[in-house]
Amino acid sequence: MDDQVIQNILHIQPNAFVFLGIALVSYFLGRLIKSKIPLLQKLSIPVPFIGGLPVAGIILLFRITDTAIINFDVSLNSIVLRFFLTMLALFGTWKLISRGTWVSMLFWALALVLGVLQALVGIGACEMLGLHKHLGLLVGTISMIGGYDTVNNFAPTIERLDAISGAAQMASGVVTLGMILSLMIGAPLGEYLISKYKLKNPNSTEFDNQRLSRSILRSPRPFYQQHTVECMKILALSFVCMALGDLFNHYFLQDVFIPDYVSCMIFAILIRNFADKTNFFSVDGLALRTLTKVILTIFIALSTCSLRLDMIGSVTWEVLLITFLELLLNVIYARWVYFNFLGRNFKGMLFAVGGLSFSMGVCGNGLSNMQSLCEKYGPSTDGFLVLSIVGLIMLNVSNVFLINFLMMIF
Question: Signal sequence: where (predicted)?
Fold first, then answer.
């Protein structure tokens, strides 16, 4: 851990071990808080968000009182996200992918329409308030469906072209606010849809307990030993896929704007289908589910603890008003468009919840909201895979073209 005093203020840069330790402890803090507050249980608010937000609040308190400035190394978040997505892609059997192809394409098309609507709302509100229309695009499509990476790519250009002072910091504040709101609203929206339409998950339990018990009894080795081996196999496959993806990116995709994790996910899907086709080795579902849930929980805990809540203070009241108009649009779109077009059933509900979250900055928040609901109502493996493919791959690529097009016409 590095620390130094600058202008009489202590600046602390915790290393990855300290950051990870704080995030893991915050998870158990979240479990404790949620167990004591029935409303949080009823609304299915994700545990890592509940525990991580107080940590982010304490760091904000240190900052605004000039006690200390704590900056986490958020590169760890990217590594954990890549690990999770690679592991998630090991679920990608050909049957599962083929079944979800048309849903993914429709989901993607609907998300692109929402991106245009976000731009129209932002630009229209800015014109009414006498602000530059590109600020509306920045607060709308770029911050909402784009997220931090898109803001970092486009905000400097908008600042330079339109002389909008502090636009990048303001947009980062909008993304931070969007992340918080998506984790506060996403799962409750799912609970509302489940209650209103009496939705039932056909996969009511995580596993068939009787089948699992029979499998344990038939195994020549103790269950703990067998499960350990299967977990080690999942970890080995995940790291191999990440290594192959990294090598592929280095030698073939250096000048191509594609997220690093895409290649890792593709190799994971290829390896999974090779295993299923040849029976050379197996991928155990119990071990895979356990590890993906653990890694996703760690990622959300890291992301929440490292939230720069002070960024929200840079948001002016006009931009704050536009942000809440965008929030209203996103909620209405998730409730009436995503849910109605992607199936008025349990899976459609999950797509609405996940779509709301990646429409407000971060796809990982959608996965966390979905996981919180699935822990209560049962799993949906293909729902997680579809959301990841659409929110983290297809939209990441198409957003660049969509935003450039919107900047040209507006």
Answer: none
